[in-house]
Fold this protein.
Amino acid sequence: MKVGSVLLKKIVESFSSIGKRGEAMLYYVMLFLSISGLVFILSSRQIFGDDSPIVDAGTGKKSTQSVGSSEVTVIEKQMNPKTRYGEVLLRVEQPVTQVGIKYETVVGENATKQLVASKMTNVHDQYYLIQLENIPTKWKQLVVDFGYTSKEKPQINMNYLTDNVEDILKDRKEKTKQVTFIFDYRKMTESTDVQPKTKDQYIIKVTSLELNNVEKLMKKAAENRISFEKEIRLLNEKMDELEQQKVYETKEQIKKLDQEINRVQAEIDSYKQAISDIDKQTDSLEEKKQKLIERNRKSTYGVEESK
């Protein structure tokens, strides 16, 4: 009995020791799984990509926004991931009567709330370049505020026969107009070729863009001209049919046919006028194209001489 009691005691102690080791093992397994889960959550965007909503102004027509009476379009946005240098090219459509305006910009990073060093210059005509320095390494969104502060235009036909002379003679009030563009890091073009250039090189770039636009417009004009000429041919055929019908119709029916013929002729005339307008526009575009080519040539020679 004594031997059996001792043996039973040893068996119980053995199971108790195994149980404690099992609890410890279970604890370590749970700790490992918790840490692994946390690491997975933190690194999932690096592994599978950032799935947060993309807020981005885009480029081209969809990016266009109004600043006062002007329209601002983002033409290009790109950066060098190695040097952290970036460029944003804007095109500003400004009414000819809008004068005395100096555009300014402020750039910041949304996630880090850091200001980004920026410099804006007027490359040529309606094109403005924003150059960015030291973009934060782990940036998410660049916020670009673009706008101007200008004084109100002087009033015309002001009535000076008033006691309120001080109000009339005081400085015109300043008004601030601005627009905000947001650029997402997932939509920013990256290239190690992005670096500061000379003014002539930027002029060549924007001139090439303008040339491309002119050529597209000329192509579209040529397509429209062909389409209008086809319509005129079809309408002329219709007129011939109506004229032939008149031979076998009564006076009353001939009168109705003449009215239809007149309507067809009016439509032919409208297409002919449209073709005439297209020809004038094409001549104007051709003239602009030649001037752009000349401007590009002069800037290219300037670049070559500087080399």
